[in-house]
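Lab notebook page, bench 4
Experiment: in silico fold of construct C2
Operator: M.H.
Input chain length: 279 residues
Purpose: comparison with the prior construct
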Amino acid sequence: MRQAGLNVDRPDDDDEPSRDPRIALLDMLTLALGIRLSRGVAMGPLLTVEPGPAAPERTGPGATAETAATTGPDNGSAASGPSQVPGGSEWDWIDEDCPNAIRLMFVRGVTPERVIGAFGADPADAQLLTADVAHETAALLSRPSVRVGRTGEWAFAIDDWHEARDFQRVARELSAGTDLALFDEGLTSDSPDFSYLVDGAEMTGFEPWLAHERRGSDPDRFVPQMQQAGLIAAPHPNAELQDIPRVALLEMLTLALGIRLSRSVAMGPLLTAEPGSRA
């Protein structure tokens, strides 16, 4: 509760909440119980019924509201369907909150502390900072920072600085014995780039604007999800290419790997450290 900004102790009469208590309460649920609900899901298509005493009738063998809810497009599956997500994508926040270059890394089955250590920082020195505070602190001290957290089974890092050579070392090290997805939006190259590594080797990689030109030992690994997300043309008449390829790329990660990262988590308090600061 303290981490989310809720007043745990009885406040004085003239004390005012430091932030909107509704947001703080929901942040507490994320921090304590892992509960997340993105704008794309909450405002998008959901099963809707009229409350009443009557039980819903089955519409087919074994059909229930529960099974319908778990087989829809929001469960991270690669089910076939239109490439455009009705009501927008749950990744739309990245264009609103991160208009400049950004790097996102997702590593399966490791701890956030492991990621911080791979960046050459001591996890014990990491501070829990929001995106705004982290950026202000980095600018004030002229020091880079990396923000690290967890979403589902994936640890993630949000990085806005690193030398290309050193960052490739970090990616190879962290992907040892697991898989790693990396979206580098022009920080270490002239154009945005995506790479998927397994045990230190690149399985597939491409530039989102040129997703039809792929590299790696398994370049077509995510082709169905790339088509569904609108990165490449799909073989059905309603397919459309996304105008914003970085959102389409992140949508592909959700479809192919189940990776999700909501605005409240990405912009909220995360472990923040200076790369290379460990003595």
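Observations: Residues 69 and 139 are 45 Å apart (CA to CA). The first helix runs from residue 21 to 33.
Next step: discuss at group meeting.
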